[in-house]
C-alpha cells in the first residue's frame, strides 16, 4: 500500500515536472533529462511510469478532459459560463492544464491529433447547450453545434492573448467580456439579465 | 537598377522560404540552413539582407501589419467584418502571413513581444469600430475597446482551431458564424440584417 502510494506520487511528480518543462520550452524542445532533473527520480523510475516523452504528453492531454467538470446549475447557460470561468481560473494556477492547452495549440512533432482537446471541450459545452435548448434558454434558430464550436475557438484565442499580455491574470475578465458580447446572439432576452458573467464565488466550486 | 531588382527578389525569396520553414517547424526548430536550402542563395547573400534568424522573424511580423488593409466601406461594421474575412482568406494562401501569426501565437525564444501582432490588429479594428460608433452603428453602452480586443482574441483562436481541423479551409465559414453570434451584442438591431457575414466578392477586393 505504501509502495502503491509512492508510485502514485512519483507519477504525479513526473507529470507536474513535465508540465512545467512543456509549458516553458514547448514539446519539441523539452527533453526527458529536463523533466528528470526536476523530480529527483531515477531514469528507471521515469520509464517505469512512462515509456516515452510522448506517453507523458498523452497523460497531460487526459488531464485536460478532467478539468472540464460540468458545474451543477439549474440554468444551463449559467453552467456553460461557469465552466469557462472555472477553466480560466485553473489555467492561472495549474501547470498541468496549461501544458495540455499548449500541446493543443502549438504545432509540434507530438503526434496526438490536437483536435482531441477541442473535441473534449466542444462535447462538454455542446451537452450543456443542448440541455439549455430543451429548457427554452436558447434563442430560436441558433445552431448549438455552431455555438459550441465558436465558444471553444474564441476561448482558445482569448486565453492565448491573455497569456501574452498578462500571463493569464486578466483571463476571467476577458472571458466575462466575451460572454457579455455573445449572449444577445445566443440566449433569450429575458434570461440575459439573470446570467452572471463574472467568476462564480469560490465556495460554490468544489 | 537590375541589381536593385535582384536584391529585392532575393530578400523576398528569403522571407518566403523562412515563412515556410517557420510555418512547418516553428521558430525555435528552424535553422538558417533550412531557409538557405530553399532559396538557392549563398550564406553571404542571406546575411547581406538579414544578419540573423531574429531579423527575418522581425520582417515577417511587419508583413502581418501590411495584411491589415482596411476595406473601403460606407458601413464601418461591414468594413470590420470584411477585414477579418480578407485576413482569413489570406491566411489560407499566404505562407508569410501564416508564419507571422504562428510567431505571435507560440511561445518561443523569439524576443519580439508577441503583443505586436495583437496590437496591430486591435488598432486597425478599434479605429473602424470608433468610426462605426460615430455613425450610430454600435449599440449604446458598448465599450469599443473591449469589442476590438474580444474580436482579435476570438479570431486568433478560431484560426488555430480551423488550422487543426481543416488546415484553415473552413476559416471564412467559422469567421462568419462568429460574426452572426457577435453582432446582436454589438450592432444596432436595424443594421444587423443588412450586414454581410460571408466573404466579400473577390472583385470587390483589391
TrEMBL record, chains A, B:
Q: Report the residue ranges that make up the HTH tetR-type domain in this protein.
A: 8-68
What keywords appear on the UniProt entry? DNA-binding, Transcription, Transcription regulation
Q: What does the record give as the DNA-binding region? A: 31-50
Signal peptide start and end residues:
none
Out of the domains of life, which is the source? Answer: Bacteria
UniProt keyword DNA-binding present:
yes
Cross-referenced Gene3D superfamilies: Tetracycline Repressor, domain 2
Q: Is-annotated flag, keyword Transcription?
A: yes
List the Pfam families: TetR_C_45 (PF21935), TetR_N (PF00440)
PANTHER family registered for this protein in UniProt:
HTH-TYPE TRANSCRIPTIONAL REGULATOR BETI, HTH-TYPE TRANSCRIPTIONAL REGULATOR RUTR
This protein's name:
ScbR family autoregulator-binding transcription factor
Q: Which organism is it from?
A: Streptomyces lutosisoli
Amino acid at each position: 500500500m505504501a509502495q502503491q502510494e509512492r508510485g502514485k506520487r512519483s507519477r504525479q511528480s513526473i507529470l507536474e515536472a513535465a508540465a512545467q518543462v512543456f509549458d516553458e520550452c514547448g514539446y519539441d524542445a523539452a527533453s526527458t533529462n529536463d523533466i528528470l532533473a526536476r523530480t529527483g527520480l531515477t531514469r528507471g523510475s521515469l520509464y517505469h511510469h512512462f515509456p516515452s516523452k510522448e506517453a507523458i504528453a498523452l497523460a497531460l492531454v487526459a488531464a485536460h478532459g478532467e478539468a472540464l467538470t460540468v458545474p451543477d446549475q439549474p440554468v444551463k447557460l449559467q453552467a456553460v459560463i461557469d465552466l469557462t470561468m472555472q477553466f480560466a481560473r485553473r489555467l492561472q494556477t495549474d501547470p498541468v492544464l496549461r501544458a495540455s492547452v499548449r500541446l493543443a495549440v502549438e504545432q509540434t512533432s507530438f503526434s496526438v491529433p490536437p483536435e482531441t482537446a477541442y473535441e473534449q471541450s466542444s462535447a462538454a459545452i455542446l451537452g450543456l447547450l443542448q440541455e439549455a435548448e430543451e429548457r427554452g434558454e436558447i434563442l430560436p434558430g441558433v445552431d448549438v453545434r455552431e455555438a459550441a464550436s465558436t465558444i471553444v475557438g474564441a476561448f482558445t484565442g482569448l486565453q492565448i492573448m491573455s497569456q501574452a499580455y498578462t500571463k493569464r491574470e486578466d483571463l476571467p475578465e476577458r472571458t466575462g467580456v466575451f460572454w457579455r458580447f455573445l449572449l444577445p446572439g445566443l440566449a433569450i432576452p429575458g434570461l440575459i439579465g439573470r446570467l452572471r458573467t463574472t467568476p462564480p464565488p469560490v465556495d460554490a466550486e468544489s
